[in-house]
UniProtKB/TrEMBL annotation:
Belongs to the peptidase C26 family. It comes from Culicoides sonorensis (Biting midge). GO terms for cellular component: extracellular region; nucleolus; ribonucleoprotein complex; vacuole. The lineage of its organism: Eukaryota, Metazoa, Ecdysozoa, Arthropoda, Hexapoda. It catalyses: (6S)-5,6,7,8-tetrahydrofolyl-(gamma-L-Glu)(n) + (n-1) H2O = (6S)-5,6,7,8-tetrahydrofolate + (n-1) L-glutamate. Keywords: Hydrolase, Nucleus, Ribonucleoprotein, Ribosome biogenesis, RNA-binding, rRNA processing, Secreted, Signal. Pfam families: Gar1, Peptidase_C26. This is folate gamma-glutamyl hydrolase. InterPro entries: Class_I_gatase-like, Gar1/Naf1_Cbf5-bd_sf, H/ACA_rnp_Gar1/Naf1, Pept_C26_g-glut_hydrolase, Peptidase_C26, Transl_B-barrel_sf. It is found in: Nucleus, Nucleolus; Secreted, Extracellular space. GO terms for molecular function: gamma-glutamyl-peptidase activity; RNA binding. The active site is at 349 (nucleophile), 460 (proton donor), 460. Its main location: nucleus.
Length: 547
C-alpha cells in the first residue's frame, strides 16, 4: 500500500514512519524519509509539525481534487494539483469542515490519487461523484522533492531524503525502476516493495502497507497492462445475459440449429464466445435469465460482480426477453452505483445499442446502417485519453486499434454522432471512438458512462479471440488478439472492484455456466462456433434457489 508504515502525519514518522514511503526505500530514502530526518532526511518531525493534536480549521483551503470512487469505507480522490500531501493530511469541504484524512497515495508521478479515511460521522454515501474537496496548502510538499536527482547530484543526506537508488521498490532511478518502481507511485505494485508510495508490510510480499488496498496493484505481465483501480476481489463472477430464440435467430444459428432449437424446449441462448471473453479476462460466468420478475435481478445482482450484455438480434420494442431484462438490470445498477456500490456493465454490439437506448430513457435513437462484416480501425475522439477505458491502455494497444483493421463489426443498426448529441446522450455518456459504414455513414463505436462504470463497444472483441467462421472478415492476427484481450482484462478488472459474493461456494457452483454444456454449432452453419442453450425450466429452477 502506499504511504503506510508505522508513522503518522509527520509526528515522528512523517511520510511512512520508519520505513519511508515504500518498502525498503522509496519516497523516503531508507530510514530517513520524511520522519525525523534519518541522518539527513529533513529535520525533526519531517513534515508533520510538532505534536499531533487538532489545531482547528486552517486559515484557508485550496481545491485538492474530486471524489472519484469509493473503496470500502474510504473515498478515493483524483488529485488535480501537482503538489503532494502529507500522510494523514486533513481533507475538507469548501467551508473548511473536515471530512477525513489522507490514508494512501498512489498512481503516476504527475497523475495520482489518494484514499481518504473518513471521520467517524462521515459516510461514503454522503458524497457525490466529481464532488470537489479541499486541503490546507500548508500540508503540501512540492513534487520535485520526490523526483530522482540528476546524475552526480547528491540528496540531502547519506541516509535520508530521496535516494538515488530508490532501494527495492523505490522512487529512485536505479534499481527502483527495475525492481518495483521508479516510474510512478505504484508501477509494479505489491510484489517487491510496491514500486513507490508504498508502506512496509501488508497484502503483498515486501510492499503494501497493511489492510485493505485502494491503490493500484493490477497489471498483466504478458501485455504490460496497468489499470488504475486496484482489485479488491480476486474471484470475480460476471453475469452474461441470455436472449430469446426468435425467428430472427436463424441468421445467427444457421438453418439446422434453428430448426433443432424450435423443435426442442430451448427458450434462450448465450454465445460461448462471450463466456470465454469473460473467462479470458480472469472471471467466472453465471448466465442471467430472461423473462423473470425484477426481484430475481435484484437478488442475482447482489451476488455477481458485473453484467455483460452480449450481441445478438433481440428486439428492443419488446417488453419481455432481453430488452425487459436489460431495463431491469440497468435500473438496478443505477440504484447500486448511486449508493456507492461499484457495479460495472459492459455492452457489445446489440448490448452497446441497448445501453445507449436505456441511457436515452428507453427511446430508440438507432439508425439503419451497413456495418455487417467489416473489420475497421477506430477513429478516437479528442478526449479518449481521459476515459477510464483508455487512459491506462498501453500505447501499443492504442496504436493497433487506431491504425489496424482489427475491430470486427457485424451490425445492421448504429448510433450516429448526431443522434448521440441531439438526444443529449452526451450529458451522461461520452463518445470515445467512431467509424464509418460501407455507405460512409459515421457511427459511434465506443462509449463510456461519465459517472458510472458502464462501457459499450459496437464491435465484437470476442470474435477475434473465439469465432472462426471462414467466410468472415474477423482478424485473428497477433495485434487483433492483443487488443481484444485488453478489453477483456479491462472489464474484468472493473468487476474486481465489486465485492458481492454468493453466500457459499456451493451456491455459486449451482449457478455457474459450467452446469450447461456448450454445443458445437459452428459445424452446422452457425455464425457462432459454440452456444449454450437454456430451457424454461432451467431459469425456473434457479429462481427457486435464490433468496
Amino acid at each position: 500500500m502506499s504511504f503506510r508504515g508505522r508513522g503518522g502525519g509527520g509526528n515522528r514518522g512523517g511520510f511512512g514512519g520508519r520505513g519511508g514511503g515504500g518498502g525498503r526505500g522509496s519516497f523516503g530514502g531508507g530510514r530517513g524519509g520524511f520522519s525525523r530526518g534519518g541522518r539527513g532526511g529533513g529535520g525533526r518531525g519531517g513534515g508533520g509539525g510538532g505534536r499531533n493534536f487538532d489545531q482547528g480549521p486552517p486559515e484557508r483551503v485550496i481545491p485538492f481534487g474530486y471524489y472519484d470512487y469509493p473503496c470500502q469505507d474510504d473515498l478515493v480522490l483524483k488529485v488535480e494539483i501537482e503538489d503532494v500531501p502529507y500522510f494523514n493530511a486533513p481533507i475538507f469541504l469548501e467551508n473548511k469542515s473536515q471530512i477525513g484524512k489522507v490514508d494512501e497515495i498512489f498512481g503516476n508521478l504527475r497523475d495520482y490519487s489518494v484514499s481518504v479515511k473518513l471521520s467517524e460521522n462521515m459516510k461514503v454515501s454522503s458524497f457525490t461523484p466529481k464532488q470537489k474537496l479541499y486541503i490546507d496548502p500548508g500540508k503540501l510538499l512540492p513534487l520535485n522533492r520526490f523526483l530522482p536527482k540528476p546524475a552526480g547530484q547528491k540528496g540531502s543526506g547519506p541516509r535520508g531524503g530521496v535516494q538515488k537508488r530508490g532501494g527495492r521498490g523505490g522512487f529512485g532511478n536505479s534499481r527502483g525502476g527495475s525492481r518495483g518502481g521508479g516510474s510512478g507511485f505504484g508501477n509494479r505494485g505489491g510484489n517487491r516493495g510496491g514500486g513507490g508510495f508504498r508502506g512496509r508490510g501488508g497484502n503483498n510480499s515486501r510492499g503494501g502497507g497493511g489492510g485493505k488496498r485502494c491503490s493500484t496493484g493490477a497489471e498483466s505481465r504478458q501485455w504490460g497492462y496497468r489499470f488504475e483501480h486496484a482489485p479488491v476481489n480476486e474471484h470475480p463472477i460476471v453475469g452474461v445475459l441470455a436472449q430469446e430464440i426468435s425467428l430472427d435467430s436463424a441468421d445467427i444459428f444457421g438453418d439446422q440449429i434453428f430448426l433443432d432449437s424450435i423443435r426442442g424446449d430451448w427458450q434462450s441462448y448465450i454465445g460461448a464466445s462471450y463466456v470465454k471473453f469473460v473467462e479470458g479476462g480472469g472471471a467466472r460466468v453465471v448466465p442471467i435469465w430472461i423473462d423473470k420478475p425484477k426481484k430475481y435481478y435484484e437478488k442475482i445482482m447482489k451476488r455477481v460482480n458485473g453484467i455483460l450484455f452480449p450481441g445478438g438480434n433481440a428486439d428492443f420494442v419488446n417488453n419481455w426477453g432481453y430488452a425487459q431484462a436489460g431495463r431491469f438490470i440497468y435500473d438496478i445498477a443505477n440504484e447500486m452505483n448511486s449508493r456507492g456500490e461499484y457495479f460495472p456493465l459492459w455492452g457489445t454490439c446489440l448490448g452497446f445499442e441497448l445501453l445507449a437506448v436505456l441511457g436515452n430513457n428507453g427511446t430508440d435513437l438507432r439508425s439503419e446502417c451497413a456495418g455487417q462484416s467489416m473489420a475497421l480501425n477506430l477513429n478516437f475522439t479528442s478526449n479518449f485519453t481521459k476515459s477510464r477505458m483508455f487512459r491506462d491502455a498501453p500505447q501499443s494497444v492504442i496504436d493497433i486499434l487506431s491504425e489496424k483493421p482489427v475491430a470486427a463489426n457485424f451490425h445492421h443498426y448504429c448510433i450516429t454522432p448526431e443522434n448521440f448529441t441531439s438526444n443529449n446522450l452526451d450529458e451522461s455518456w461520452q463518445m470515445l471512438a467512431t467509424n464509418k459504414d460501407q455507405n460512409n455513414l459515421e457511427f459511434v463505436s465506443v462509449i463510456e458512462h461519465r459517472k458510472y462504470p458502464y462501457y459499450g463497444v459496437q464491435f465484437h472483441p470476442e470474435k477475434n479471440l473465439y469465432e472462426w467462421h471462414k467466410s468472415s472478415t474477423i482478424s485473428h492476427s497477433y495485434d487483433a488478439i492483443k487488443s481484444s484481450q485488453y478489453f477483456a482484462q479491462f472489464f474484468v478488472e472493473e468487476t474486481r472492484r465489486n465485492t458481492n459474493l454468493f453466500r457459499t461456494e456451493g451456491e455459486a457452483n449451482r449457478f455457474l455456466i459450467y452446469n450447461w454444456p456448450a454445443q458445437f454449432t459452428g459445424r452446422n452453419g452457425s455464425a457462432l462456433m459454440q452456444m449454450y442453450f437454456f430451457a424454461l425450466h432451467d431459469g425456473e429452477t434457479h429462481l427457486n434457489k435464490i433468496d
